[in-house]
Specification:
Elements: H1 6-18, H2 44-57, H3 76-85, H4 90-99, H5 106-115
Helix pairs in contact: 3-4
Length: about 120
């Protein structure tokens, strides 16, 4: 299985810590980690995240559009699940994914770093 690039991992952890979004364990990040569901980055925050990402990794995002993924808006149900049960257990993650389909993954960011374009 392919690993997340160390600079990308460091960027995600640093971004979440800097803006106090969500504590992220670098060891738990993998290519299937969703930016909107697992890291709680959605709405206007995801646009700022992508701008910082493109700036740091010198990625061309001129052709990027949310039509391919659907704009991540978050979910009240998922917020309640995380509040009541936490998000560490497998069943809570499965329930959250049942309520809200993740739209944007770390895999997309890693592909952008490798190709130089965010599509």
């Amino acid at each position: 299985m392919e690993e997340v690039l160390p600079p990308l991992k460091e960027f995600i952890v640093d971004y979440c810590n800097r803006y106090k979004l969500n504590h992220v364990d670098p060891g738990s990040l993998n290519l299937d980690t969703s930016i909107d569901l697992d890291l709680d980055i959605f709405d206007i925050e995801i646009d700022l995240f992508l701008a910082d990402f493109a700036d740091q990794f010198k990625v061309d995002q001129s052709k990027f559009t949310w039509y391919k993924y659907g704009y991540p808006k978050g979910s009240t149900r998922v917020r309640m699940i995380k509040l009541m049960f936490g998000y560490n257990s497998t069943w809570a993650k499965q329930l959250a994914q049942y309520c809200y389909k993740p739209k944007f993954m770390v895999r997309n960011l890693q592909d952008a770093v490798k190709t130089g374009r965010l599509v």
